[in-house]
Amino acid sequence: MSARGHLLIGLVVVLLAIALPFVFPINYVITQVTLLFVWGTVVTQWNLVYGVAGIFSLAQMALFAVGAYAAAMLAFYFGWSLWLAMPVAALITVVVSVLVGLACLRLRGPYVALLTLAIAQVLYLVIVNDTDCYTTEGSGCLPFFGGVRGLTRFGDMGFRDWLGQDWRLGHYFVALALLALALVFSAVIMRGPLGLAFRALRDNPGLARSRGISRFKYQIWVFALSAFFTGLAGAFYAANFKTIGPTVFSFSLLLFLIAMMTVGGIGTLWGPLLGALLLMGVDEGLREVQDWRDIGLGLLLVVFVILLPQGIVGALSRRDRGGG
Amino acid sequence: MSLDIIIQIIASGLTLGAMYAVSTVGLSLVWGSLGMLNMAHGGLMAFGGYAAYYAMNALGLPLLPALLAAILVGAVLGAIVYHGAVRLMLRQKAFETNVVIATVGLAFVLENAIQKLFGAQAQRQPLQVEGAIEVGNVVVPLQNIVILVTALLLMLIVALLLQKSRIGRAIRATAMNREAAQLMGVRVGQIYALVLMLAGSLAAVSGVMISSLTGLSPGVGADPMLKAFIICIVAGLGNVYGAVGSALALGLIEALSQFVLGVRFGFATLLLIVIVVLIWRPNGLFGRQQVTRL
């Protein structure tokens, strides 16, 4: 698709998103779509690592958590405004992500998945198993990372004072701006020289390296670049709900996001976002039959990975090019 | 450290290691011959545990038939994993990563199916051997000894199967070189199905063993599966005999560290060790460097 085509789709999506809360001024819809924007941001960045660069990292939710915890802790322990804490948290996430990328440097394929899973698990275990009181102010004994209950009372973004009843709209548009920036960011990377290098290393590492494309350099780049908006999304998530806990490490959330990318189309620009929209929709539809939700999610993932591994957008764009 | 404590640690360490070995061998076989990480392994373990539970509590079967029922269920589930998912995606270019996603999905289905069938609350595994023997001043439950002996027996059977039988030779040949084996008349598809069934039944047995010590819950396989992966990594993925040795070593280390450090950060430390091993030696401590032609 041409650059102009992508731009057109983007404009339509943004306009629809801007109009939505005025057409359906329902609190529940606004809250859920805000969450959709957050997951959309996460999967468009994850897609850079997994889809474009072909590195099967499962650490992305851990990075999301790093962003969320960093923002919450900066605000909680130092009394920072969340507006300052959020970008700083995103930068911290970039540093952590580069470390993860360095750790994965010599590994390939499924070994990367195992290593990143182990890293995420260690972070989770450290948070959950630490029961020593770091501070006893306020709500009693609180471990450094908040323990199982997580952190609360670190302030919010101030929309409640500013907009009163309509504070949800403030959160909604911040999330929309986040998603739009993340999409533009990943589009620019995918269509630029970096994206070319990532894809070359994914499709034919031997040839790419013999042509002078450094695996070291570009792997670090992709981990660093994809982390910024992931961390920012995490920080926003914490600010939005005014609480953050170890549930962000949950297996079902990880699966939910992987399913978004798989269903929508890994490695495509719009696939992950479309997947996020579809899965949030399916999730909403299955809310009535909560018990079946998880089984349905698992089966959906299996069916898609078998029958349509390139996802909906991938399949459509392939047909575009005449079965290519 | 007195002698009694040492005996205690060795006894519980060997039991843990034996259980880990049974589950790890299956995982390692599957990786070695199919080149896939089976993320549904923990789900198979849990299902095995519940199969034995159902056979004893609801059907009233005695101990051995209940164990056989668990093995059967494991084998059937292994066949389902192969024919329902793996077989259909073998030709995909991104098989290695897609199969991880597919089996993660299956694991999720299995865990939630158990929750729907048996409820989310923890149950006691009825497949137990009562009684204990005394070694010195230490009381060792008979259950631990039965687990150890069963595990060793199973390892022996698997080793004989791999080394002495025609099927075992075909499995080893497929693991070494899929195309060459195919050209020699090995039906690779059947071998794959067989390996997954074998791995499934081994997972089921280890699920029964583990749940007999920790109790049954839908997520009972999750931690043991992570440990099995750890063992596989240390041994080098696909290295079956290295996996058995590493499993026993890990069991002993775990028992020792629980005694010395306490349980709280034991697992996190273990995972940290894995991370370091993977960074330092990407093919595992005992794994050989894989040479891939481009």
Commentary on this structure:
The complex is a heterodimer of chains A (324) and B (294). In chain A, 74% of the residues lie in helices and 1% in strands. By secondary structure, chain A is mainly alpha-helical. Chain A has a two-stranded antiparallel sheet with strand order 1-2. In chain A, helix 1 runs antiparallel to helix 7 (167-191), helix 7 (167-191) packs antiparallel against helix 10 and helix 11 (251-264) packs across helix 13 (290-307). Chain A is globular and about 60 Å long. Chain B has 294 residues and is an all-alpha fold. Helix content of chain B is 74%, strand content 3%. Chain B has helices at residues 3-34, 41-57, 63-89, 95-118, 142-164, 166-176, 178-183, 188-214, 222-235, 240-260, 266-280; strands at 132-135, 138-141. A two-stranded antiparallel ribbon of chain B has the order 1-2. The A-B interface holds A 56, 103, 106-107, 109-111, 113-115, 118-119, 121-122, 125-126, 129, 131, 204-207, 251-252, 255, 258-259, 262, 291, 294-295, 297-302, 305-306, 309 and B 36-37, 84-85, 88-89, 92, 94, 96-98, 100-102, 104-109, 111-113, 116, 226, 229-230, 233, 237, 264-265, 267-268, 271-272, 274-275, 278-279, 282, 294.
Write a compact overview of the structure shown.
Helix content of chain A is 74%, strand content 1%. With 324 residues, chain A is an all-alpha fold.
Show the helix and strand layout:
The complex is a heterodimer of chains A (324) and B (294).
Chain A: H1 3-23, H2 27-52, H3 60-78, H4 82-103, H5 110-129, E1 151-152, H6 159-163, H7 167-191, H8 193-203, H9 205-210, H10 215-241, E2 243-244, H11 251-264, H12 271-285, H13 290-307, H14 311-320
Chain B: H1 3-34, H2 41-57, H3 63-89, H4 95-118, E1 132-135, E2 138-141, H5 142-164, H6 166-176, H7 178-183, H8 188-214, H9 222-235, H10 240-260, H11 266-280
Antiparallel strand pairs in B: 1-2
Helix pairs in contact in B: 1-5, 1-8, 1-9, 1-10, 2-3, 2-4, 2-8, 2-9, 3-4, 3-8, 5-6, 5-8, 6-8, 9-10
